Structure formats: C-alpha cells, structure tokens
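Q: What changes when beta-D-glucopyranose is included in the input?
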Amino acid sequence: MQRPAFEGPWKLAVRPYGPDEDFRYGSLMMSGNGYLGFRGGFPDFRKEEYAGCIVSDTYDCADGKWKELCTVPNALFAEVRLNKRKLSIHDSVDSRAGHALDFRYGETSGTASGTDGDLCMNFHRFASFPHLHCVWQRIELTSETGCRIDFLGGIDADPWSLNGRHFRTMELDRESGLLRADMVTSESGLPVSVVSGLRIQGTEPGPELHRERTGLYLVLELTVPPRRSIVIDQCMSVYSGNDTPDPGAAALKDAARGMSAGFDTELMKHRAHWDGLWQKYDISIDGDEEIQSLVRYNTYHNVIATPAHTDHLPIGARGLSCQAYQGAAFWDQEIFNLPMYIYTDPPAAAGILSYRYHTLPGALEKAKRLGYEGAYYPWISGDSGEELCPDHFFIDVLTGRKIRNHFNDWQIHISPDISYAVWEYYRATLDEEFLRTKGAEILFRVGQFLYSRVHYSPARERYEIIRVLGPDEYHENVDNNAFTNYQTCFALKIAAELFRRLEREDPDHLAKLSSRLGLAPPRVAEWEEMAQKLYLPQPDPESLLIEQFDGYFRHEDILPGPLAERLQKESEYWGWPNGIAFATQVIKQADVIQLFALHPFDKDVIAANYEYYEPRSQHRSSLSPGVHALVAARTGNMPRADEYLRRSLKIDIADTHPPDSGGTFIGGIHTAACGIAWQIVVKGFLGMEVSVDELRFQPRLPRGWNKLALSLRIRGVRIHLEARPDSLSLEAEDSAAAGVSVLVGEDRGILKPASRLVFNGKFVQ
Ligand code: BGC
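A: The predicted holo structure follows.
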C-alpha cells in the first residue's frame, strides 16, 4: 500500500498512486464545503473506483434498511483517449504521476501520463465555498511532441452508492449548452438535479452529444499542440428539492452563472473564503512540521464536514466523505466536532446546537415510543431527529445472523452530552439569547427525559441508572456506567440551575416555556434531589480507580492483544452479546478516561485510572486515541500525550481503522478524530478551561514546539494567543466593554480590551 505523505505544509500527496487504494484516497483527497463532499479521484473514475459526490440533506433509504445520503451523478466526468487508449493514473509510470490535496484551499489535484507518447494530464478540482452547490474542475493536457486525442466529458449518472440505488427516475438532457440530469430518489421521492458545463480554451470544433443509458457526454477530438497545453474547464452544480422547489432550474442558473464567471474568478473567491476560515481556525505550530500539517489536515476535514450554511443539518460521523454512518450525527458532533467552533466561531457553534433544537420533535417521539418523558436524542440523527440507528447494526460474521445491538435504546448518554455542549457553549459565549430561546428548552427536555429514566433503589437509598451502554460499546446492558451517571448528574444540575435563574430573572419567559413543556417547580426540586442523590462511582480510596460500571472489575482481566487470539475471523464484532470482549475488561474506547476529558478530577485519580484503563482499551473507535491524548496532555503525561496525539491525527492518513466491522461498512474520514485535533492542542497542551467568570491555562508544550499561535473568541472578544515554552501572551483584538479574567498556572491577570497580557513565569513541565 502506498502511504500518502505531506509535500510542504499544506499538501498531502500520494506518489506513485497505489493500486487498489481508490476508496481510501477518494476520502483522503476529497474537496468539500459542508454542503457537498466531492470525493478525490481522477476525472475518469467511475463507481468501480468509488467516484462520488455526496450531497447533504438527501436522506433516502434504497435497500429497506439504511437511510443514507445520496451520491449524485458525477457531472465532472472526463476521459481522455490517446490512440484509443484511456489515459489512466493506474497505468501512469511517470514520476510526476500522483494524487494530492491542498488542504489550505480544499483543492484536489492529480497528474497522469500516457503509456505511449508524452501526453500528460493535470487536473485540479475544488468544491466552492462561496457557491456551495458548485464544484469546478480544470484539466490541462500537455505534450512535448503534440498529439490528437479523443475527449469525452459530461455526466456519469451511475455513481458509486453504498447501500442500493437511490434514484428511481433519471432524465438526461442538454439545455442552453449545458448537460443536465434530473432524478427522483427511491424512497423519499426527493427531486435532485445536477448540471454540467464544459469550456475548452482555444478554437476547437463544436462537440457532439454522446448518450449512454447512464450517462450524457460531449465528445470531441482535440489537438494538443507541441509544448503548449490545452485547458478544459468543467463546472458542476447540484441542488435538491430540500434546497429549492425547482432544483433543475436552480442548478442550470448556478452553472450558467459559474460558466460566465469562469474558473479563475471562482477559484480566487473560493481561496479568499478559505483565508477567512483559517483566520478563525488555524493553529500554527513552530517546531514540528509533521504535527503542524496533521493538525491543519484534520481541521480541514472538520470544517468541510460541518454544514455551517444551515442550522438544520448534522455533522456526519464520516462527514460527507462517503455514505457510511448514514451521513448522520452521533455524540461525536457535540463532544468532538463542536468545541473548536465554540471557542473560535460562536455563530457556527450556535448553528450546530440549533440543529439539536430543531430536532427536538424526533427526540420527544423517541422518548415517548420507549416509555419515557422529555427528549431522548437519537443515537444516529439525520435531518429530522428520528432515530436512524437500526436494531441490528452488526452481523455475526461467523453465522451471518443479525446482532441486536442496543445503541438505539440503551446508549442514553447522548442526551446529557447535548446538554453538556449547550452549557459549554454558554460558558464560552455568555450568549443569553441562545440560552433562553433554544438552550433552555433542550436542557429542560433532557432533564425531563433523565428524570423518567433514572431509577431509585430503596435498598441502596440512592438513584441509579441501570441497563445502559456507556461510550465503551462492547459492554451493553450495564448498570451505573460512571460516564453516563456523571453526565446525567451534570445535565440535571444545569437544567435546575437555569430554571432557578430564570425564575429570578425572567419569570414571564419561564412561565410560558414551562407551561408549553408541562414543567412545574416541584419537578425541578425533584431534579435537584435526584442530582444530589444520584450514585456517582467514586475513586477507590486505595487504588483510586473508578469502576467503569457495576461489576466491571469482576470481569476477566485480559489485554486486547491476547484476547484477539480468540477471534475466529478478523472482522468479528467484539462486543455484546457474544463477542470476545463482552465478558472481559477489554474496552472498545475511552470511557472512564472520557469522563476526565469533560469533568475535573484530582490529578492522582486521573493518573491511576489512566494507567489502568489505557492498556485495556482496544481503541477500536477512532474517538479513543484523541481523548487519551487530550487527557494525557492536560495532566502532563507528555510521552503518552505525544504518542496518542500522533495516533489520533494519523487515523485516516495511516489508515489505522479497517473500513469494516461486524460485516458493516464504516470507512471514510473519521470526522470526530479530526474535530478533536483542535481540542488536544487547546484543552490538552494549553490546558484551557473556560468558566463563566474566567479563562484558565496550564500550558505544557510538547518537546520541540517553539511556538504555538492561534485565535480564540471568548465572550465576543477575539483573542490572539501565542505560547512559547516559557511564556504565554494573549492579545485582545476588540475593544470590548469588559476585560476577561485570566489565570495561568498560579498567576492571575485581566485581559483588558484592545490590550496584551504576557505571562513569563516558568510553566509546569
Ligand atoms: C463509536 C461511537 C461513535 C460512533 C461514530 C462507534 O464506533 O463506538 O462512540 O459515536 O462510532 O463515530
């Protein structure tokens, strides 16, 4: 397998192109903008090479089992033939041949060369940010000696699709010099249209139309003059009926607009847009070039997975890199992807949380269906908030039988995780408007759910939470999962706290909201009591260990390596009910360690638990290494922080996670791992913690890092931060009304409006 490598600070490339790696490179080199994801790959790639453009908000169920996003026809298809032979990357022997992504601007490129003659093709593609429905492609053909070629370009209407064909009808046509494909999705009946524009620079004879059953193309013969290139520009536009009532007309108009503006103008606007994004999200690291590129690469994927243009859509667990995980959100969204936006781009963060507000009806319906009150958020959430997670997610690969996983009805921590995120957003922004209009309803509805789900044990005189799945998905049907209990307690407390505050500060608003939610003060008093008496597994006085769930320590104590020897097939699912890990202490991912990423604990407790749980974790979830890096960095465990930082940042590039598990395809970009990159640096190495009245740092830079620079936006103040091994400087850009109280180690200072604060003390190493 050919591993991709960085070429300079902003480019990932694979040279030579490895055989049979089309799927992986397609995800790694993709270009996207939060509305669509155009997979990497060469212009002549078809479904066999996993060519696909995944479009948000097109959920459809083609095979009776999975709702997923559609891949739409490829309106940037292009094929070049020399002497009747296709120019293909798979046959290219030239040392320049390869595939790359410039992740500063989301530009996919590639070079392929002919086997006979000296014809060389470069292509360059980007999913426009200023025009979200548009993807551009430029092909340049060069030849030393000159040659005649056959060119075919247009719409390949038979794209790769993971779970069945998503279009029940398809019409292909030519209109106003553009090609169009109009489809209707199989189950949801959603109209989708793509339009393709083509321009060849120079004066070549007009192309002819070539129609196939699943494609519509323009064909022509071209002369490539010696030592001069010919340039072919293609523009694709895509709309669905969820964007506009007449997607065909919108796509035609958009493509025509694009064609008249031209590739160069559109690229310039697109780059300017990215420059603006990087001003908010970039982390600049001086002293470790590899980590620098990796952090940016991961941030790029977090950004292109986020539908920042709307507050009605989720961030998919695989972004828009492919259809795996149904283009839907998990808890990954709030705990892994969102925090970067909370501290750098509050409007984008508010949009992501608003999505959970808009999908409350789905969460209410799920709670009701399962016999609870309030909002039980779906484990897998698409556009509407209905539970998309099927009862049978995996199969037993030994027998072919379905496994009943209880992700959808027992993994309750999703609801308090969302409350946690609302509060994290509020602490950083003090956005009262959001809290009152949307946040309060989320917190109260989750409070109602938790109240109906938590159980009182008269024998133990405490509240408990039984029959759950914590973050470690190998152990289903456990009682008192520490992570879930702490998150629940936190969510009940903040809901009650907000209720009390509104009682004092905004009783009219509260009265209206409470009456709509059927919520009365006595119930809130019960939340308070429940939070107080909820069992929170405590560190053992001697070992300091927190038991992951009741009885965990009684399970067989074996490590993942030796346990793996019991597998009969590599792709077996390790968890409930018959997997090899289920009756052991081997865990899928951070669970108690995940708790430390969100709640304060003594350093000694964290260290003892880290030593215990880290070797027992298989890190089979891509969420796990990043959390281990963050917690290790925050507690000064620098060797582990470094190890897990690299491991997390390289999950996709080094291909550490097989795309299949328990017979289910879960490949593509691991968006949560991409999202946590920013957090590892800021919450981990800088030790940033934000409370309602202060901003704390406990910086410990990894060996070799000379300087770390980034921007934050806290309480509306844009702060430029620069950390060096022995100093930290914060500069407030805006002349905001109030200063921000900052604590660095033991030093305290006030960051005044439009001023700079420097700490020169020696920080803890
Ligand atoms: C993990 C979950 C995660 C999901 C989506 C699973 O493998 O165990 O924690 O939410 O993948 O990333």
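Observations recorded in class: The chain has 19 helices and 34 strands.
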